[in-house]
Amino acid sequence: MGSESETAGKGLMMTEPYETQITRAILGSYHAKLSRALVGDVLVVGAGPSGLMAAAALAQMGRAVTVLEKRLSPGGGLWGGAMAMNEVVVQEEALYALNGVAVHPRPAGDGLYLLDAVGLAAALCVKALEAGAVILNLIQAEDLCIHDHEVVGVVANRTEIAGRLPVDPIVFRAGVVLDATGHEAALVQMLRRRGLLEMTSSGEGPMDAVEGEKFVVEKVAEVYPGLWICGMSAAAALGGPRMGPIFGGMLLSGLRAADLIDVELDVEASLRQPDTLSETIPAT
To answer: Which of these, 229, 224, 250, lies nearest to 179 by C-alpha position?
Structure first.
């Protein structure tokens, strides 16, 4: 038989208040998720439309993806549509990006399609989660982790703490970091402030919807070893025009980022593989 203290301990566990059981379940599940997200293939900072699209595509490719979002609600600028009218537009040539996304585009004429902004934001979140990406909201990037002149991770803290209280952050590591922070281009600016990245742009240009949509797709790039940009981060970092409440370019920019990053990770993996052929063939 067990001791009286052991019996009392078992009795206590069996009669834990319902509220404590709820709290314990959340703590265990969240910290397991957080631990799993600390190291991965790709770290996407910013859960707007381009970041979520990139995360979903990369996760579908089998990559381990973590998304950090500083706000309570992932979805970026989608929720408010245009001037708080929660409808957004996608052009016909970008509709294929919505394959597998639970939305219902409605023709608006001249190759434009309307979408409910709330529905699109929610559907992109679900798409990324179902693909296997981990989304952590209320976590803000404070700094970058750089080893040997290469970005290898992001220094992050709770949004309510970052810059307000003297509390140290933690680090998320990844093979590639994607700046999808939108108009802020926050990670790019961190490098600029330290003189590690020279770019002449002073921010986005004036609105030009046609050229802006092209720009954010064409200018997806690795701007510093280990750091990529997409979506409005590309426009802000490189001086592209803004485009307003049309989101096809954001979706296509995220898809292009995913494709390019996937190739980059394959190349890096091949470079790390030992040359087994040369090792097994004796020199003559």
So the answer is: 229
Measured CA to CA, the distance from residue 134 to residue 5 in angstroms comes to: 41
Q: How many helices (H) and strands (E) does the chain have?
A: 9, 11
Q: Which residues contact 254 (CB under 8 A, 6 or more apart)?
A: 49, 50, 51, 52, 53, 54, 55, 57, 97, 180, 230, 231
Return the minimum-mean-pLDDT range out of 94-108, 132-146, 263-277: 263-277
Topology of the domain comprising 40-268: FAD/NAD(P)-binding domain (3.50.50)
Instruction: Kindly indicate the confidence band of residue 274, based on its pLDDT and cuts at 50, 70 and 90.
Output: confident
Q: Which residues contact 120 (CB under 8 A, 6 or more apart)?
A: 49, 78, 88, 101, 103, 247
Residue spans per domain, the chain: 40-268
Amino acid identity at 40? G
**What pLDDT shows up at residue 198?**
86
Q: Give Cα separations from 101 to 29, 53, 128, 282 (angstroms).
A: 27, 10, 10, 54
What is the distance between the alpha carbons of residues 259 and 70, in angstroms, rounded to a whole number? 25
What pLDDT is stored for residue 11 in this prediction?
52
Give yes or no for residue 243 having a pLDDT over 90: yes
Beta pairing, strands 65-69 & 134-137: parallel
Q: Report the alpha-carbon distance of residue 47 to residue 72 in Å, rounded.
A: 11
* DSSP element (H, E) containing 134: strand 134-137
